[in-house]
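User: quick one
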Amino acid sequence: MPELPEVETTRRGIAPYIEKQIVDAIIIRQKQLRWPIPDEINPQLSGQSIDAIKRRGKYILLQTANGTAILHLGMSGSLRIVEPGLPPAKHDHVDICFSNNKVLRFTDPRRFGSLLWTQSDPYQHKLLSKLGPEPLTDDFTTNHLLLRSRGRSIAVKSFIMDSHIVVGVGNIYACESLFRAGIHPERAAGKISKARFDKLVVAIKAVLSEAIIQGGTTLKDFQQSDGKPGYFKQALAVYGRAEEPCLECGNAITVKTINGRSTFYCARCQR
DNA sequence: ATGCGGACCTGTTAGC
DNA sequence: TGCTAACAGGTCCGCA
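Assistant: Done. Structure below.
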C-alpha cells in the first residue's frame, strides 16, 4: 500500500495525537510480522514519552528518551488513531495506548510490515544505515544518480525503486515519474544521460510532493489516519491505465512486468 | 559487486 | 454461483 507519500501522510496524521504523550501500554495480538516484534519493546517503550515522530524513507520512527520504535507498513499496513475500547478487527495486530486516552492501532493484513525497537541511534540501525537520500531534500541530485548508475545494466525503473539508491519511490511513483520524464522504464540506468536524469529528479520530486499534498494515493484500501482516502489516484497518468489512451499522445498505455513488478508506460512518449 | 528470483502472507478480482 | 489462479502499494536474502 504505502509509498513515501502515504507514509508521510500517515506520519502527519498521527503526530498531533501522540507527540509528547506517554505510552501507557502496548497490546500485541500478533507478533509474527515481517520480523517478530521484539519482546523488549513492551518494558522499554511503556512509560516513555514520544519525543518526536520522524520518517526515514518508508520507516516511521517513534522516538523516546529510552529508544526508538521503528515501524514499517509493508505492502498493506496502516496506522490509525482510535478510541480505547474499540474492538480490534481481524488484522489489528498492535495497539499502543497513550495517557491522553488515544490508541495508535497498527493494522496489516499481509504482515509484510514490521515493528522493531532499538536503543541505539535508529539511523545506524541495519535497515536504515544504508538507505539512499530522501528524494524531497537537496541531497537527492542528478549527480547522485549519475554516480551510482554508471556501468550498471539494471532497468532504470528498478534502479530508482532501490531504496539504497533513493528512498520512497515505489511502483506507482516510479511509473509516474518515468512518464513525466519521458524515459522508458527498461532503459539501462547506466546509459541515461545527465540531461535526462535532470528531468527524472525533477519529476520524482514533483510527483511525490504533489501526492503528499493530495493525501496519498488510494487504490484499494489506503486511508489516511483519519479514515479519509487519498486523492492522488485521479492524478495518475499511467499507473493502472493499461490500454487506456496516453494523456499526452493518445497512444494505448502498455503494461509489462519488469523485475517482477507491473510497469505502466507510454511506448511512444517514453524512450 | 551486480542482477535476479524467491520468500514472506492474506485478500480481492478476473476468468472459467 | 463457485472454484482457482493471478495479482496487489515492499524489500530482504541467497544464489549465480
